[in-house]
Amino acid sequence: MTYDERFWNQYANENESRYNEEFAKFVRDLAVSLRCTSVLEIGCGTGIDLRLFTDTFQIHGIDLNDHALDIAQKKLPAANFKKGSITELPFEDASIDFVFTHGLMNYLDDETVQKGVGEMFRVSKKWIMNCEKFEETERQIDEKQKSRNMKNKWLDLKVKFVSNVDMHEDIEPDKPRFTLLKKV
Questions:
Q1: Which residues, in sequence order, are CB contacts of 127 under 8 Å at separation 6+?
Q2: Alpha helix (H) ranges present in the chain?
Q3: Would you say the C-alpha torsion 26, 32, 35, 39 has a positive or negative sign?
Q4: Mean pLDDT score, 10-15
Q5: Alpha-carbon distance 22 to 55, whole Å?
Q6: How far is the first Cα of the chain from the last one, in angstroms, to the nearest whole number?
Q7: pLDDT for 93-122, tens place per residue?
């Protein structure tokens, strides 16, 4: 995977305009309803999807972009943001209740996605969620993104599919595929 720092710095600068309160509420409410106390967003950027979590949660975010992480830490000082890759998550096995991505997997090459799925499974204690642009047969969207069929990525791991549906447009206007898994 080639990391384009200039692209991701610009993405971080524009990230505040992407803040979707309905999606942030959805993620928070889902984690609450699943009785989670710790949450990790991989590819957290500036932390916009984590902003509505209260201090009663252990909030973690991982990203490769230092600029985005600086913004995230200023916006959520109680959270634990770290520079890191989805292929080598700096957490113990089964240490996080709820692990998720939102629009990250679409930017990664196939090998990185497969390694990342293994790492998400490893660090998750209970729940895993992906919200990614979906097509049954994956295809290149543009020079940076590829649509994903995340359900297929999890088939060899010990998980139970709880949901694999398109998000409602009132929650996420781009209607990515919402895949929720329970680790078994």
A1: 31, 34, 36, 97, 98, 99, 180, 181, 182, 183
A2: 5-14, 21-33, 66-75, 110-123, 150-153
A3: positive
A4: 77
A5: 20
A6: 30
A7: 999 999 999 999 999 999 999 999 999 999
Residue 17 is given by DSSP the state G
pLDDT, tens digit, 9 for 90 and up, residues 29-58 = 999 999 999 999 999 999 999 999 998 999
What gap in Å lies between CA 38 and CA 87, rounded to an integer? 20
Asked if the model's pLDDT at residue 15 lies above 90, the reply is no
In whole angstroms, give the CA distance from residue 58 to residue 81: 11
Q: Where are the beta strands (DSSP E) in the chain?
A: 38-42, 58-63, 80-83, 96-102, 124-132, 159-166, 177-183
- The one-letter code for the residue type at 93 is D
> What's at 32, amino acid-wise?
V
Cα–Cα distance, 81 to 70 (Å, whole number): 9
Dihedral angle over CA of 162, 170, 133, 27, nearest 10: -50
Q: What domains does the chain contain, in order, with CATH numbers?
A: 5-183 (3.40.50.150)
